Model the fold of this input.
Amino acid sequence: MDGNGRWAAKRGMPRLIGHKRGANRVKDIVKASPDLGVDTLTLYAFSTENWKRAAHEVEGLMKLFRGYLQNHLLELNEKNVRVRFFGDPTPLAADIRKQMDFLTDLTKDNTLLNLNIAINYGGRDELVRAIRTIARQVSTGETAIQDIGEDTISDALDTRGQCDPDLIIRTAGELRLSNFMTWQSAYSEFAFIKESWPDFTPEVYEATLVNFRSRTRQFGAVVPRAADATE
Ligand code: FPP
Done:
């Protein structure tokens, strides 16, 4: 969800106003997802590197997360949305962690949309935590070294039990992954959108998905394309 700061600066406003507009956009995009055929949506809300920002910006973002969790808890549940969180929650404030646990538990049987919110998430940090988990399993004899495979790693990640992302969308024109889903993105498609996150309307979202659905995905194999089948 990149470009909140630039969106605000362009309008002569403080960066936090951009994040606030970004949080409003989150609501529209979550609401639009099921109608657009999306069953799993992951929002990269705060990276393991975002702590390096000015203290007042970090505090402002935490306030926004707190507000979003408090204000949308019941609505998300009523709308049949299952909410889960990716990332290491340890450095987050106790009340935010409590809300996260409560919402995860409250919505665990919901089926309309899987909404994952990545907070204090980094793809490398997730792999480090997964390797520690697997090392513990090896040391207790629960897993044998020769049995470690791709599934062992997938099952130790925050995304365990969920599918790899089909499409990763980054707004605001930067052409980087920035530590997002390092393992899971092996065969993801990418959409780099020029609009900043506050301008990522449901219409832009829909156009992005239409473009994605027109692509041929081969996953390393060779799939005959319609144009090749004429002879
Ligand atoms: C990146 O834009 C955005 C963030 C680090 C924060 C994203 C957070 C929200 C949209 C707020 C609410 C989220 C939820 C889940 C309720 P940037 O600040 O790096 O923008 P810039 O590159 O233009 O400076």
Observations:
- The CA atoms of residues 8 and 50 lie 18 Å apart.
- The helical segments are 4-10, 15-32, 55-78, 94-106, 123-139, 150-156, 202-213.
